[in-house]
Amino acid sequence: MMAQAGTLEIQHLSKSYAVKDGDLAVLEDVTLHIAPGEFVSIVGTSGCGKSTLLRLIVGLEDQYQGEVLLDGQRIVGTSLQRGIVFQEHRLFPWLTVEGNIELGLLNAPGSPAQKREAVREHIALVGLQGFEKSYPHQLSGGMAQRVAIARALVSKPEILLLDEPFGALDAMTRAYLQQELHRVWQAEGITMILVTHDVEEAVYLGDKVVVMEPRPGRVRRIVPVQLAHPRERGDAGFAAVKQRVLDEFSHDGASLAEAPLKPEAPVSAQLPAALWQFAV
């Protein structure tokens, strides 16, 4: 059974943090509409508030101006409706592939038999049949990240958030997992939001690319990606959209082709232990 896809409305969202000399504005007047089943890529240089935006969508913070609405309801606290995958897989080393994925169902309804079946289905979804009893140290980085994706999806969230999920992988593995994530997105039919520094990745996966500018974070432009799937990176149309996105950064003096010197703090760093099950 497919998960329900969520509609996300972000309306005039602003966020500040109290600092010694006053308030530090992190996000300013961000407005986005993300339709059910849409794949949205968000790109921007370090400091543009991408991770803060994810924390607000996940529900870890509630002190902000504006609205963050899922299916018309204001997001309050964490929920199984919103799954998340980080750059690091964050698997528990003492649990098998099955055990790690089953953690995503910790607070979910259903009988033990139903949960076992859901785990089996999602192992198949990410192509890891035969590795059910394997431990994380026996997996490659790409395989471990597929386990993390399965763990995030097993509770059937309405929205999956992806925070630089392939940033720590080599180029070939990264390209392969981009294809796999696209396949999973089409199979599951849920809404996905990807934060990335990689413009090519953003264009390859996204229905649209949200370009953010920093300090405070604002939406500079939303670039539609009107290309049929599967996309060919060597096509002229693909190159044209990628260049449109890159052109938005020509005045920043920063290249998205380079990883940031200091990555933004992962969302999981803000999680209380009792809420870990939502950070999958």
Automatic annotation (TrEMBL):
<feature type="domain" description="ABC transporter">
    <location>
        <begin position="8"/>
        <end position="239"/>
    </location>
</feature>
<dbReference type="GO" id="GO:0016787">
    <property type="term" value="F:hydrolase activity"/>
</dbReference>
<protein>
    <submittedName>
        <fullName>Sulfonate transport system ATP-binding protein</fullName>
        <ecNumber>3.6.3.-</ecNumber>
    </submittedName>
</protein>
<dbReference type="InterPro" id="IPR027417">
    <property type="entry name" value="P-loop_NTPase"/>
</dbReference>
<keyword id="KW-0813">Transport</keyword>
<dbReference type="InterPro" id="IPR017871">
    <property type="entry name" value="ABC_transporter-like_CS"/>
</dbReference>
<keyword id="KW-0472">Membrane</keyword>
<keyword id="KW-0378">Hydrolase</keyword>
<dbReference type="GO" id="GO:0005524">
    <property type="term" value="F:ATP binding"/>
</dbReference>
<dbReference type="Pfam" id="PF00005">
    <property type="entry name" value="ABC_tran"/>
</dbReference>
<comment type="similarity">
    <text>Belongs to the ABC transporter superfamily.</text>
</comment>
<keyword id="KW-0547">Nucleotide-binding</keyword>
<keyword id="KW-0067">ATP-binding</keyword>
<dbReference type="InterPro" id="IPR003439">
    <property type="entry name" value="ABC_transporter-like_ATP-bd"/>
</dbReference>
<keyword id="KW-1003">Cell membrane</keyword>
<dbReference type="InterPro" id="IPR050166">
    <property type="entry name" value="ABC_transporter_ATP-bind"/>
</dbReference>
<dbReference type="InterPro" id="IPR003593">
    <property type="entry name" value="AAA+_ATPase"/>
</dbReference>
